[in-house]
């Protein structure tokens, strides 16, 4: 979902814009260094691919609605973290400028959520898992877990941006609900990413991005910090709602001791009090449970999908006739550039 | 999302179509910033900008109905967010949640229509030429250029692949849709990769040096004719 103009407050727009501009510029520079001028051709076409892939609708089995791939982690796995972020940014720019989907001034916030956090943050989660497991199953499981987290983390970042636009007081509750809803939505993203990667790994495993091994010390540290940041954000996502009863306790104590008198007490006795007593503990526990169940589910699904990649089919050429859907439209006309 | 009807057609060209892309782009950005910066509860400036926008749509020669329909398709997201934000917005204490929510919806309606108007009167390649003139890095402009050019090619290819699949499978179960659609995406991705490499070799063969040249940018020898 793209944030339209003027849902976020002006300071948030400026701050996210600045972060996004810096991140986009850095990503563009790194991409240029790695791929030279070929980058523009490949990145442009891959951005068009992400845009087109987002048009494929996946029917939800329980509801008469459909969802689609976001593709941040898929792009990062295939092209590398920063190139993936740039591709997502390009998609967002065209969507905002030509389709009015997402505000122009909210481009920074959207790029922060769907580009930097989904691609770069998702890659920071994917890379350690891929290394730990190794091989094609490593790529698959890492990408699926990362895809799940990327949806979760972007939604939480969105919640924080909304909250910073004027209602910090309700942040824990919103974070809890966002985490709960997007833990389910993220399963869809993880499944699609896994299914797509399974087909790609069966046919052209050589196309999956692999970082050059000549990692210098600074790069290694940067990766460590990034990975740690991603992991701690992920943990915080599930612990933040749990911490909120404590927060309310603080307000309660504050009220008791007379810190919060006058105007403040009216606010505390308002609708928020109801929420904290009835709604909050449920959301918190459900969120923590959703985090645990989601991680295990995605991991197990990755294991199952990883087993079904048949090895040794890489030599068959670019299009695999056995993989579902790949044979469709494989006529000579479809290949003409 | 439908991709057609994006390139402005020359047939209904009004005065706005003939304006320089640098002017229309700057004006649209200025309009969006002005609308967003309008304080809450200030209905008069919003009304004035709405009238200005209506006037521009009127002289542009673009059917207002089509513009509104495309804008309305984006409104559910805005409505939902407005409903979430309005009750606890800091301004809601003074103005009441309804007026805050209405302001958010109205502002977003104006900015969405303004961007759609820009997209309808100024072709995307002219916007990109204007961006290049504003010293936006060449790498970004070229990437956007290529992305936009191949967006329709890939969307067509996706449509062909989906049609071919439909014509070969007589009844589709809903639970099959996921692996089949994912296979579709995977095949499209591989073809996009290969297409990218082919296109790059072909461009190198024609002397590509990393800059996009166009006959109808701001530096073009003569302005583009609407015919």
UniProtKB/TrEMBL annotation, chain A:
Top-level taxon of origin: Bacteria
Transmembrane feature ranges: 12-28, 40-62, 69-98, 104-126, 138-163, 175-201, 221-243, 283-306
Cellular location(s): Cell membrane
Biological-process GO terms, alphabetical: transition metal ion transport
UniProt keyword annotations, A-Z: Cell membrane, Membrane, Transmembrane, Transmembrane helix, Transport
Record's compositionally biased regions (Gly residues): 326-337
The keyword Membrane is annotated on this UniProt entry: yes
The PDGLE domain, residue ranges: 223-309
Pfam family of the protein (one): PDGLE
Entry membrane topology: Multi-pass membrane protein
GO annotations of cellular component type: plasma membrane
Listed InterPro entries: CbiM/NikMN, PDGLE_dom
Cross-referenced PANTHER family: METAL TRANSPORT PROTEIN HI_1621-RELATED
Protein's recorded name: Fused nickel transport protein NikMN
Gene behind this protein: nikMN
TrEMBL record, chain B:
Keywords recorded for this protein, A-Z: Cell membrane, Membrane, Transmembrane, Transmembrane helix
Any one cellular-component term (Gene Ontology): plasma membrane
A Pfam family: CbiQ
Claim: Cell wall biogenesis/degradation is one of the keywords in the record: no
Membrane topology according to the record: Multi-pass membrane protein
Transmembrane helix as UniProt keyword: yes
Transmembrane segments: 21-40, 46-64, 71-88, 100-120, 127-148
Taxonomic superkingdom: Bacteria
Protein name: Nickel transport protein NikQ
